[in-house]
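Good morning,

Attaching, inline, the backbone tokens for the sequence recovery test we're adding to the shared suite. The designed sequence is right after.
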């Protein structure tokens, strides 16, 4: 057990508090307690601010989503019926941490974006605002959580779905389900 009044022992374990013990000890006749200067606190605050900024930059990674998302599912389905491609639908919302993670860490990966752009017609359905037309699309496909990714055939029928995935898992999932319906029939 550490004696409470021994400033040397306390200072060895808690060096920042040694100053407090020396200046607040009984018998100290000093009426004005001297502490760290104003300059010290300004430098400490600046260092703390830089630390927080550095942590935030580290979280955002490479930054932005590299996928060119359309926002009109009906137009994408019409294009899919002509091209034979599948439609990848990304249900997301601004308030969703998993969606933000996927945008910053998954869809910002070049390999992910290349697979999506090559094999799919990508559509993002933003569910941030309740009551929007996107909300009706979510109800149509029984979306209960975000992020949710659907692969649709050209007629709008759901082929498969998944929740949020990391970049490697998403590429695997897309490659597994990426062939169009016409390609499945020809095999």
């Amino acid at each position: 057990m550490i004696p409470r009044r021994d400033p040397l022992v306390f200072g060895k374990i808690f060096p920042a508090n040694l100053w407090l013990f020396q200046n607040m000890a009984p018998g100290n006749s000093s009426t004005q307690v001297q502490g760290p200067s104003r300059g010290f606190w300004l430098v400490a605050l600046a260092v703390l601010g830089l630390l927080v900024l550095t942590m935030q930059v580290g979280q955002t990674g490479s930054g932005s989503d590299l996928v060119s998302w359309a926002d009109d599912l009906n137009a994408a389905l019409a294009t899919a019926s002509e091209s034979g491609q599948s439609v990848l639908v990304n249900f997301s919302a601004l308030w969703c941490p998993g969606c933000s993670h996927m945008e910053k860490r998954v869809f910002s990966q070049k390999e992910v974006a290349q697979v999506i752009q090559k094999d799919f017609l990508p559509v993002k359905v933003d569910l941030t605002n309740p009551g929007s037309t996107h909300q009706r699309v979510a109800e149509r496909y029984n979306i209960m959580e975000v992020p949710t990714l659907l692969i649709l055939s050209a007629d709008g029928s759901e082929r498969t779905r998944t929740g949020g995935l990391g970049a490697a898992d998403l590429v695997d999932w897309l490659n597994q389900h990426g062939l169009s319906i016409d390609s499945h029939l020809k095999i």
